[in-house]
Write a structure and sequence with these properties.
This protein has 341 residues and is α/β, with parallel strands linked by helices. The chain contains 11 helices and 15 strands. The chain is 35% helix and 19% strand. The strands form 3 sheets. It has an 8-stranded parallel β-barrel with strand order 7-8-9-10-11-12-13-14, surrounded by 6 helices. The protein has a 4-stranded antiparallel β-sheet with strand order 2-3-1-4, covered by helices on one side. Strands 5-6 form a two-stranded antiparallel ribbon. Strand 10 (180-183), helix 6 (191-198) and strand 11 form a beta-alpha-beta unit. The structure holds phosphoenolpyruvate and manganese (II) ion.
Length: 341
């Protein structure tokens, strides 16, 4: 951390800051120029924050130089985390493809989708039972009955299942049925939920908030790891920008940046990022090239009748040809589909 003093700050103001820091157990290193004095600080950041240095006389600015996250950082763990779920894995060269409909609608819809995506090479099945909808009048999901159908479909084809925990009160129920607990974009900074999932024995798929920075995403993941749960998958799902042609803007720079900053697996969701079916394949290819460890793709047997996100959903045959297209690209990136056998 750096404490930047105001131009020509008085010597006693500088000394006061140094004294406070020293009393708090931190080291203060002075760099004194003609006009400006800068104090470099090494010590426990939480303790230093409580000093409220920014409000002191003569202090212009306090700049953090240390990253606010630790456990998720590559500095803490250099090698990739591999999240293993039954026969599937994501990270460390294993590429995960999580496919399925936006929302669970019926047993027939789930089982037929599960069969199709499994045959095409998907490594996990998705489907929402609790849906975060902008309008309170829109379909909110099937709830526990949906979880049951998701489990049936996953078991039928032998794929682990991923579904969203919309409310921390449902976390235990969702964990009874699901293998991976998804935190949706709108809940990325629901800190109570992150704390709770940190104590649970299920991997967490953490989606980036609509206007969250990379640092905020990593700090959210830090909550889960801090609770003891090391199995977190990060998901870039598009951020809100001035562009309205696409539903969101897929930030592939963030995928590459995250790969340098964290050991956690990073996947991309071109479906929610683009909102347009025709962009899902090109954005998937781009995500592979950007270094993603996986993809989340919405697939529906009859998108026109989907109760949620039909326009961005692929039909099974389109998903299947995308998977074929991706295979040689994965090999180029020294990755393979994350499934046993
Ligand atoms: C979803 O994956 O179903 C979903 C609602 O995504 P997001 O939270 O990224 O909007
Ligand atoms: Mn959706």
């Amino acid at each position: 951390m750096l404490v930047v003093m105001k131009d020509h700050a008085r010597a006693e103001d500088v000394q006061h800051v140094v004294d406070l820091l020293t009393e708090a157990g931190a080291e203060a290193h002075l760099s004194q120029g003609e006009v400006k004095t800068i104090i470099g600080v090494i010590g426990d950041r939480e303790v230093i924050y409580t000093l409220d240095l920014e409000g002191l006389p003569g202090v212009e600015q306090v700049i953090r130089v240390l990253k606010p996250f630790k456990l998720v950082s590559r500095d803490f763990q250099a090698e990739d985390t591999v999240v293993r779920v039954g026969p599937s894995s994501i990270g460390g060269g294993a590429f995960g493809v999580i496919a399925g409909p936006c929302s669970i609608e019926s047993e027939e819809q789930m089982v037929s989708t599960a069969r199709a995506v499994k045959a095409a090479g998907a490594t996990m099945l998705r489907g929402g039972a609790y849906k975060p909808r902008t309008s309170p009048y829109a379909f909110q999901g099937m709830g526990v009955e949906g979880l049951r159908l998701l489990r049936i479909a996953g078991d039928e084809v032998g794929l682990p299942v991923v579904t969203e925990v919309l409310d921390v009160r449902d976390a235990d129920t969702v964990a009874e049925y699901a293998d991976v607990l998804q935190v949706g974009a709108r809940n990325m900074q629901n800190f109570m939920m992150l704390d709770e999932l940190g104590t649970m024995k299920r991997p967490v798929l953490l989606k980036r908030g609509l206007s969250a920075t990379i640092e905020e995403l990593l700090s959210a993941a830090e909550y889960v790891l801090k609770g003891g749960n090391r199995d977190v998958i990060l998901c870039e799902r598009g951020i809100r920008t001035f562009e309205t042609y696409t539903r969101n803007t897929l930030d592939l720079g963030a995928v590459s940046a995250l790969k340098t900053l964290t050991h956690l697996p990073v996947i991309a969701d071109p479906s929610h990022a683009s909102g347009r079916r025709e962009l899902v394949a090109p954005m998937s290819r781009a995500a592979v090239a950007a270094g993603a460890d996986g993809l989340m793709i919405e697939v529906h047997p009859d998108p026109e009748r989907a109760r949620c996100d039909g326009p961005q959903s692929l039909i099974p045959v389109a998903f299947s040809s995308l998977m074929e297209d991706l295979r040689p690209r994965l090999a180029l990136e020294h990755k393979r589909l994350g499934v046993d056998g």
